[in-house]
Amino acid sequence: MERGCPIAGYVGFDGICYKSFTEEKTRDEARQACAADGGVLAMPRDSATNTFLANLAVVVWGRWFGLTDVNNGGQWVFEDGQNLTSSGYSNWLPGEPRPDYGKGGCVGFWEDGSFWDEKDCSNLRGFICQLQLQDYCIEESVDTEAGQVTFSRTDGGSFNYSAERCNSSEGNEKPLATRFCRIIPDSTAVWDQPVVLRCDTDLHNLSQVRVHTKLSRVSVYAKLSQIVVNNITALSVATELQVITTQAETLSSGDVSTITDILQKIVNASATEQIGESILTIADNFMKVNETVLLDSHQTDRAPTRVLQALEMFADRVDLSTDRFTSKRQDVALQAAGVSVQEFDQGQGQDESQSEILCVE
Fold first, then answer.
1. Which InterPro entries match (predicted)?
2. Pair type for strands 210-211 and 195-196
3. Alpha carbons 195 and 212: distance in angstroms, whole number
4. Closest Cα to residue 206, out of 193, 224, 179?
5. How far is residue 178 CA from its own chain's centroid?
6. Which DSSP helix (H) or strand (E) runs through 124?
7. Which of 148, 166, 198 is the last residue of a domain?
8. What is the largest CA-CA distance in the chain?
9. Which of 122, 131, 191, 254 is the most exposed place for a label (fewest CB within 10 A)?
10. What are the C-alpha distances in Å from 55 to residues 50, 52, 58, 91, 243?
């Protein structure tokens, strides 16, 4: 199965999945076949898409796609109701469409190439269907050091927590693991690796972590309070903090200050995109803390301001996998983009990166 396409045989292009069918059908039958897959007849609205579809459609008698003039009034309309003229693109075969044809109304690729021709809708032709790329991560069970854990279907750009929970006499329902569903550059959604949580970790022993940015050796300790925050452990500490801050309404001003201290240690130690997703979630959770608590923590040690500074530091240091990192939550969004040496020389950036942080009221 093509990554991101929900049905086998479909191929992704520019955020949409397509499949070419050789079975010949009338235009209405072709529409029904696409609908059975949860899609519609393909809609080539630009040159790049048209070329891609034409290469899928190499066959003697061409293929139907989703453009019609059902009323024979010269108003060509795509499957989703968009008028052809408003799309700004067409690729008619010379002489097409034929206003005097009288029995046309449906469009497909001509027998050879990427040109369009008009045919009687009752003609038998192959056809091309389209589906939306899968913008969510499917339910999946994975083996981890904590055992097998299951993550339910999750929308792209968001976290999910394992169905399996910690056993606790205190009724603690902390998940065993968390996982991020990432939207990658081709607009498909893929799971990050899961991060296993520690059932015995709380804010008290998290606050005792030490920071170490240059890793010389790794030691595994029984308690998180003994873990050094470095490029190896930063992700797990960030994930623990992310889970703790989901209970934002229970946090005190002292908790907020402690969380901010740890957040700054994390960013100092590592700035991967996966860590960025966690710290942005932490910042978003902060927006749900009681206003009086936030004000008190600001007056005590400027904790809310230091959270913003931590985000800015992350944006400056993030290890970009593409030309930019963009992520948003309900109340916070962050974008960081690299600036090339040439752009820097041309005065388009004062640094090697550009960033923007937005807090939504």
1. C-type_lectin-like (IPR001304), C-type_lectin-like/link_sf (IPR016186), Ca-Dep_Lectins_ImmuneDev (IPR050801), CTDL_fold (IPR016187), GAIN_ADGRA2/3 (IPR058808)
2. unpaired
3. 21
4. 224
5. 16
6. none
7. 198
8. 83
9. 122
10. 9, 5, 6, 15, 48
Q: Tell me the CATH number at 42.
A: 3.10.100.10
pLDDT digits (tens, 9 = 90+) for 180-199: 998 877 667 889 999 999 88
What is the model's pLDDT at position 202? Answer: 72
Distance CA 98, CA 77 (A): 16
Please list, in sequence order, all residues whose beta carbon lies within 8 angstroms of the beta carbon of residue 263, skipping any fewer than 6 positions away.
238, 241, 279, 282, 306, 307, 310
264 is written with which tokens?
């700054």
Per the listing, tokens 């992310």 go with 242
Query: Which residues, in sequence order, are CB contacts of 239 under 8 Å at separation 6+?
Result: 178, 195, 197, 278
Minimal CA–CA distance to 269: which of 244, 241, 299?
Answer: 241
What DSSP string describes 226-244? G-EESTTTHHHHHHHHHHH
Helix (H, G, I), strand (E, B) or coil at 289: coil
pLDDT for residue 275: 93
Q: Give per-residue pLDDT as tens, 313-327.
A: 999 999 888 778 888
pLDDT score for 82: 93
- Mean pLDDT: which of 97-106, 136-145, 220-229 is highest? 136-145
The contacts of residue 235 (CB under 8 Å, 6+ apart) are 195, 270, 272, 274, 275, 278
Q: In 3D, which of 225, 198, 181, 189 has the Cα closest to residue 144?
A: 198
- Name the token pair of 111: 């027998």
Report the residue count for the chain: 361
**pLDDT(291) > 80:** yes
Query: CA geometry: angle at 195 spanning 2 and 217, to 5°?
Result: 120
pTM over 0.90: no
- Domain annotation covers residue 358: no
CATH classification at residue 164: 4.10.1240
Q: What amino acid occupies position 18?
A: Y
Could you give the CA distance from residue 178 to residue 245 in angstroms, rounded to a whole number?
A: 14
Q: What whole-number percentage of the chain has pLDDT above 70? A: 80
What does the angle CA 152 – CA 156 – CA 157 come to, to the nearest 5 degrees?
115
In a domain, 247, yes or no: yes
Tokens describing residue 1: 């199965």
- Per the listing, tokens 């932490």 go with 282
